[in-house]
Amino acid sequence: MCGEIFMPFESIFQDVRNAVDKVHDSGLLKQLTLDNLRKYVHKDERLPVLFNRMRAHGSKLFLLTNSDFSYTDKIMTYLLNGFENRSWQSYFDYVVVDAKKPGFFEGGTTLREVDTESGTLKLGVHMGPMKAGRVYAGGSVNTLSQMLGISGKEAIYFGDHIFGDILKSKKIRGWRTFLVVPELGQELNVWHDKRHLFARLGELDSKVSEIFRQYDSTATTKPDIGVIQESIREVVHEMDMSYGMLGSIFRSGSRQTHFAGQMIRYADLYSSTFLNLLHYPFFYLFKAPTMEMPHESTVDPELPIDTSMNLSYRGRSTSLKSVSFDGSRENGLEEVARDIVIDDASCSKGHVPHLRADTPRRITHHHDVDDSDDESSSPESSSSDLKANGHEDENGADQVQA
Questions:
Q1: Residue 72 class from Cβ within 10 Å (0-12 exposed, 13-18 middle, 19+ buried)?
Q2: Which residues are CB-neighbours of 88 under 8 A, at least 6 positions away?
Q3: Quick one: which of 396, 388, 158, 393 has its CA closest to 287?
Q4: What CA–CA distance (Å, rounded) separates 321 from 318?
Q5: Which long-range contacts (CB under 8 A, 24 or more apart) does 311-314 make?
Q6: What is the reported pTM?
Q7: Each residue of 299-311: pLDDT tens digit?
């Protein structure tokens, strides 16, 4: 607030959003990019190498973009022409421009063929099958999937937009997803140099936990943790400023950002560039590090587990006959006695048994192996079972720790 002027965050967001939309819709951003290709577009000789290796491995490649053909043609010509005596369209089986994502992954739009000589759309609606080597505009994911002969996790889609590319293709079609995050390199550099700040933040959080651990439900006075909270704010601010004026795109202090949460949930793989795949065989199995759940992280392996409050039995043919309490107190909690009697015969006398299934005695599913084709065709059954959430090695490739 400045004098009589109040500027809420919602208003600031809307102003910035309108400005960005105007720059895109007016074509000014694309024109400035085309006028300065060397400045804004990074050309890499490894790009055609990766495409050739993918196709040699038996994969079909498609280009799906919201840009019009004229802009796409100039960008792709700059990126791919000059390395080999061939056009950029020859690297792909299918090319779709003006896709209108994320709507492309839902109802889609009318499919029309593009005249590559004039850059205009051909008359009429394209009714036949999509042909390799042609360029199309619009359409839907259903049409593209039929042409490629794929469904569910048989496809891996590379994109740099968490919502328009990754979230929609994962939720609606169940595709594998690869999120390109160019800022990842800078994030890793700061994380490497400022890791001690995160460790310090963990120490302060542990101090708060230790203070509250001394209290139970009989306490009436709240402990004073103001000094620790102020220290936490100072450490978080120093961490954020280490990433730049806007902070990290992945975390704020010990908390993940909304972007990071969506990335972990919907991106099967992520990296600063998909060219890092050159460092891996195409049969490589990416696996994320095993992560503890909150209740698992509270277990001290050096101490026995207190099972006195565990009254949930897994047997199907057992029922609880009697439970008695000894009234003893330990750490301020009423302890449950150990004299719990299970009466199997009660099940035959009309008592309702526990309806939980018996513990499996053989392996019924292995999560390191893909589901069957029938299961993968359903978006509901094709949720991500791998996350390449790791760091980049010295070659720039994601290192995924099993």
A1: buried
A2: 73, 76, 77, 79, 80, 81
A3: 388
A4: 9
A5: 311/336, 311/340, 313/342, 313/354, 314/354, 314/356, 314/358, 314/359
A6: 0.74
A7: 878 888 766 655 4
